[in-house]
Structure formats: structure tokens, C-alpha cells
Amino acid sequence: TSFSTPKKKKRDDGMREHVTGCARSEGYYKIDKKDKLKYLNNSRAFAEEPPADTQVRNHPPQLPGRRSEQRRLLSSFTGSCDSDLLKFNQLKFRKKKLKFCKSHIHDWGLFAMEPIAADEMVIEYVGQNIRQVIADMREKRYEDEGIGSSYMFRVDHDTIIDATKCGNFARFINHSCNPNCYAKVITVESQKKIVIYSKQHINVNEEITYDYKFPIEDVKIPCLCGSENCRGTLN
């Protein structure tokens, strides 16, 4: 049996009238060249003449200096959380040039390979987020394995970052009683992160240090920072 398909009509604006109400249900059909040219001409004219409100909203191109000035204003006007997030995104986009080599303070240390201005994010302390119970177990295991130093950084009461076996250059930063950096906990996308900030201007080949702020204990750990106001111990 053959069914007579209804003849497809055209609307007043030149577009094909779909009997079923949906173009996909009517299968493939060719479009005349005249109709195609008419549609292309209409779309080009619409693209070349944007509406008046769009023309008003368009702004002139901004110079690089003006963009940097806006970034400075944004960081000064917004709160500390917003400015920290902005700096953290900048740190991910362009990491500071750092290197680790032998230190006069203790074993290995982290050094700047470029000048770093004050109040800049230097590096993020990266590692595994673990609980206090796991941290205690790992500390004993590291002692049994002969690992002299454990690189654990407390984020809050429940979370500790362990960078002993999986971390970045931040774990090589040594303690100093008169440091040029400090550590700060920030929240990025509901996740707490530890970031090292610069307290002052840091020159090239200058070692990066911060205060470990160990809790006071009976068994003292000697401090070898050599600064004028050295406390003598880390804890």
C-alpha cells in the first residue's frame, strides 16, 4: 500500500512548514538554492547589524596596563578569601621558579630562582590528606624504615598533610626563627590547602624559610637556623 504524503507548504517568511510539527520526523529533504541564499543573506545582515542595546554594552579594548590595574583594585576591594583565591589561581597558572639544594641550616633546602615580592604565594604544600590516627601509625613506620624526617603538616584538628613519600618542593623548606615566609591555610572549592606566603621581598638564591611552630614538648629539637633571635629549639 502507498500513502500519499501531504505536500509540504512554505510559510510567509520563506521557511518550510512542517506538517508533523517536527523537522526530524519528516526525514531528509533538499532545500532549494534560492531559499538557502535567502536564509544566508538574512543571517549575514543580522550579524552585521547588532541590536542597539548590544552596541551600548560593548566596551573598548583594554590595554594590558589597565587590566593589571583592575586586578590590583580587585584584590584590594575584595575580601581576604577572594584575594587568596585569585592569588591561588595565579600561582597555578604561573608557578614560582624554585630549586632545592644543600642548605647551611639542615640537609636540603628550597631556594628562589627569581625575585619574589612581599605577600606573594610562593608554593603550595602538597601531600596526602590523612587523619591523626593514620599519621601516628605512619610516624612509627617511618622510624622503623629508617626515614629520619617525616614531612607532616597539620591543617586542622582532624586533617594532616603527609608529604613524606608524595609531595613537592615545599617539603624541603627549613625552619627559621626569623623566616622570610609564613604558612597559611586557605579554602579552595570547600577544600583546605596549605600555602606558603612571602613575608618580605626575597632575592634570587635566597633560601625560603618559615616558622614550623612546633608545640612545646619536654624532648627538645635543636634549631640550627643561625638567626640573631634564634630560640635554640624548634619546640
UniProtKB/TrEMBL annotation:
GO terms for biological process: methylation. Residues 43-70 are annotated as: Disordered. Pfam families: N-SET (PF11764), SET (PF00856). The keyword Nucleus applies. One of its GO terms (cellular component) is Set1C/COMPASS complex. Residues 96-213 form the SET domain. GO terms for molecular function: histone H3K4 methyltransferase activity; RNA binding. This is SET1B methyltransferase. It comes from Chaetorhynchus papuensis (pygmy drongo).
